[in-house]
Design goal:
about 45 residues; mainly alpha; about 35% helix; Haem_peroxidase_sf; peroxidase activity; heme binding
Amino acid sequence: WGLFDRQLGRSDAQEPDPEGRIPQWDKASVQEMKDKFTSVGLGPRQ
């Protein structure tokens, strides 16, 4: 997850990202997570 965090992290931002930019993992269903990753170009095996 360290690599994952570095790819997604923003060094230029001092404040949190706006609501909705990052999904709430504890509230999202499995299907919502799949849809989210597919929408950014990640398949289930990446």
